[in-house]
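Re: beginner question about structure tokens

> Can someone show what the tokenized structure looks like for a real chain? I only ever see the sequence side.

Sure, here's an example I had lying around. Input first:
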Amino acid sequence: MRLPKWIIFLSIIGIAVLTVIYTSISNILIIVSMGVSLYLISEAYAHHDFRAERRENKELQEEVRSTAKDVHLKNKQLLTVVSNIPFPMLLLDHKGNIVMYNTIDELLQNSSECHHAMNYEHNEFVHIVQEFVKDSFLLEKKLEKIITIRNVEYQAIGIPIISKTRYSGCLVLFQNISKTLEGEKMQRRFLADASHELKTPIAVIKGMVEILNRKDFEDEATRIEFLQQIDVEINRLDLLVKDLLQLSRLSLSQVLLERERTDIRSLIDKACRSLQQDMEDKGLKLTKDYQTEEMAFCDPQKMMQVILNLLSNAIKYTDEGNICIKTFVEHHSFVMMVSDTGPGISKEDIPKIFERFYRIDDDRSRKSGGSGLGLPIVKSIVDAHGGTIEVKSIVGKGSDFIVRLKH
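And the corresponding structure tokens:
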């Protein structure tokens, strides 16, 4: 500890006075010298202590500054992570205060409400969210629950946070699972529809085979008719299985396309040649109207499937008249349009025709051997190319199927 200068000075004076009284002059000089030395030594130690104290203070300040900087950086990093989580999230501390959150507008009663300084009891969340947040905090255990907010399904998850064996709050997440649930519903429906479609020809074949295998069966004309029908049903089964496999591949999250500059006209000509006999059997006339020589950037094999399916669909539903296929460029898009003079499609049916196994005329479609998957396959391929397909139809006059691909 540093002594004040005035105490040291008075001590030296006092020693000098006492020395004058009781000792000789030479001893006085010795005492004074000792006092001065004591003063200098004290000053030296005081200066050293001051420098050491100053150095320690400086090091402490640097440590505090560094710690504060690290904490700020970590908070910033945590905030960045939380802000980029693609679903609503809340972080509650040990007192139940909501200390951190991201985009939670979809959880609020009114998205325009101010939601600052919220806790597990007082907030602006919709009632079902309020209850789940409250339960997550108070029960201090992991919770999972499916809740519905404005007709949207969420997987709500409450996770307790433990720090040094003590409860320190909880993390609450709300993940939108509507698409997942819808996908599961569509999958179940698809499996049910596919099973039904497969059972029908199998039942027909099984029934005919049982009749043909009877010991007393001797009707030759019926035998020939049954064998022909069995052949039709087997071909139908083969087509259905192939279409199911193709649609399954196209339903993957990412369809692999082998795109190249393709002359759509050559694909149309090839498709028309393969379907020429079907058109002649029904007495239909085919017109091709190529208004552009531009090439389309697409997967030629998959686009061939689109053309075949659209033309087959037109032939199937057109009993007389004309089928026209046209190509042109419009608004920087390559356009292909297949038109027929069939019965047309009602406005109510147009949104449904791209659904799997949906048939406008179920009996007619079955007789023609269709799988009910042709148009869904077309739409899946066009979607994979980033294109669009549009239907314009007038009941009693015909339909136009318009495919647009980015040019």
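Each token stands for a local structural state, so reading them left to right follows the chain. The first strand starts at residue 89 and ends at 92.
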